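Blinded run. Sample ID left blank on purpose so nobody reads anything into the name before looking at the predicted structure. Input follows.
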Amino acid sequence: MNDEESGNRLGSYLRARRELVSPAQAGLPPGGRRRVPGLRREEVALLAGISPDYYLRLERGRDKNPSPQVLESLARVLQLDDVERAYLLGLGATRPRAPRRKRPEHVPARVYELLAHLQIPAFVEGRAFDVLASNAMAVALSPRLRPGHNRLRSLLLDPEEQAFQQDWTKATADFIAALRTTIGDDTDDPRFVELVGELALSSQRFRTLWARHDVRNLDGGTATVNHPVVGELRLHRDKLPIDDVILVVYYPDKDSDSDEKLRLLAALSPADSAGSALEEPANDPTP
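Blinded prediction complete.
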């Protein structure tokens, strides 16, 4: 995480976002030859109503405490949506960070019971998209949803997962933007550092999208996947927070073609396919 390690996350974000806004989008004439993609620094400053020198200080990390009014102006010029605007305001906020004790992500015992009773694909993921628990239908939908897998790593590095996703390009963009949103100011979290470092070394797609500094929430939605046995499935996705983890469920429209295929997949799946997926740690005392 070079930009995070440099301590200039605000400047890195501003630079990445201005490079994505064209002069035409900002209402400016294209002009002659442009040496930079997107807007120039002085153009951003002009449109935001601040001095070019002050904006330069922001990008270079010489002023890390701009006022909310300045950030709001920059969000308008950079055409940020609500999630991106909130992220920018968070980067400029001055708040002391209390030391936090890192603790393992924990799946409550009652969630294992819930997973066992659900007849649709369901699994539990951590903040870094680690699969922590899953039911039989989730494993039948994708073996990459067994505990121990990481959904983003599978998406970027596993050819079977890439074929599984009908719109792999959108899926990777959504997941990487969601990871940056989730990380927030936890840039020293060992799990995040490990995952970002691994993917930065092994995936050009990750490096390209990570440099864009996109932020996005990845909650509810609809996904179309290509299952190797039953074919195309159109499934809705919901994410439900439970304590420190997220319960993810996939389900089709009732009586739809995907509903019939999911029932067929359930019938074809071995009865014990959840096995280790629902095995609860023996030393876990939490009720």
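Unblinding after everyone has recorded impressions. Confidence is low (pLDDT under 50) at residues 279-287.
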